[in-house]
Amino acid sequence: MKKVTIISIDGGGIRGIIPGTILALIEQKLQERLSDPEARLVDYVDFVAGTSTGGILGCGMLIPNEENPKKPKYTLAEVVDLYLKNGEGIFSNPFSQKVKTLYGLKDEKYSNLNLKKSLKEYFGDIPLSQLIRPCLFTSYDLEKRQAKFFKRSKAIENETDDFLVRDLAQATSAAPTYFETALIQSKSAESFPLIDGGVFANNPAMCAYAEARKCIFGDIANPTSKDMMMISIGTGSVKKPVPYKKAKNFGMVEWIKPLIDIMMSGNSETVSHQLEWLFDAGNNREGYIRLEPAIGDANADMANATKKNMEALKRAGVQYVENNKEKIDYIIENLIDNKS
Fold first, then answer.
1. From CA 153, how far away is CA 12, in angstroms rounded?
2. For 287, which of 33, 144, 205, 309 is 20 to 30 Å away at the CA?
3. Residue 196 region, left (φ>0) first, then alpha (ψ -120 to 50), else beta?
4. pLDDT digits (tens, 9 = 90+) for 149-188
5. Separation of alpha carbons 226 and 185, rounded Å
């Protein structure tokens, strides 16, 4: 039976290279299977969700081609290049910045100027309402103290919910302590002070499920888990223990870094566990596919964007695909079946 295909991508900073590489290889294998070099993964996807770096990847997938607005502008390999070509600049931390911010204690650790420049280069002035698939990207409104969801469906209906893609991409990735809070405006000129959606939904797959339940996809209206194929992708599993002897004496400063990592990984694991049970209850256990790649020999720091580490992150994505051929083949076969 035909299924609604959903792709959801976790947050994780520069580690977004890993899911980006996996998706690029799936796209490449899809082209080989179809003997069609013009085929794009997004042609076989009904809904896209992302948080933080996953939001940037998701936006990149959905930017329309100028000549044919129903087709994507970029291949997924080109989306990954956003990281490989600009990562060092985005996460540059010159000595002057370190002094100015007291090594991140007084102000955000990184300037967002290079990030904004890169997002403008790739996303231009395209608004959310013109992305080529239904989608959801997460952020958090500091003044209203509530989750902020960027949805194409809402953007089409109301200018208050329509934003430039480059602005929403900045907002979903404005990680506290890393980048300053994003202050962005909707088409109706209403301002929103927003931070990274990873503070509440680092794995946005459950948010994607809830939103897709309200949508109509061709002949499938308000799909439940039995009607879906959900591909949820992590940014590299990291299980670095926090020794009790150290943690019991942590103060505010010492807790910042491990707490961010614990919140991110804890949320991702919890959401994945919930969706496994949800799809099992719908007698569609195979419909929920969690891709949780290992970090390999890369450094797990979300801001380590040295060329050496970015290449290691790319290798981790390649290695995952090579080590999970059956799972990747299963995804490709179902993508094609669901389209036919």
1. 26
2. 33
3. beta
4. 999 999 999 999 999 999 999 999 999 989 999 999 999 9
5. 38
State the amino acid at position 229 in one-letter form.
M
Q: Tell me how far the alpha carbon of residue 245 is from its chain's centroid.
A: 35
Q: Say how far apart CA 47 and CA 41 lie, in whole Å.
A: 12
* pLDDT digit string, tens, across residues 45-89: 999 999 999 999 999 999 999 999 999 999 999 999 999 999 999
Q: How far is CA 223 from the centre of its chain?
A: 23
0.85 cut: is pTM over it? yes
Token pair for residue 44? Answer: 């076989």
Q: How far is residue 104's CA from residue 101's CA, in Å, rounded to a whole number?
A: 5
The pairing of strands 220-221 and 216-217 is antiparallel
In degrees, to the nearest 5, what angle opens at C-alpha 312 toward C-alphas 303 and 18?
70
Mean pLDDT (the chain, rounded):
92
| CB-CB neighbours of 40 under 10 Å | 20
- Residue pair 302/240 in contact (Cβ under 8 Å)? The answer is no
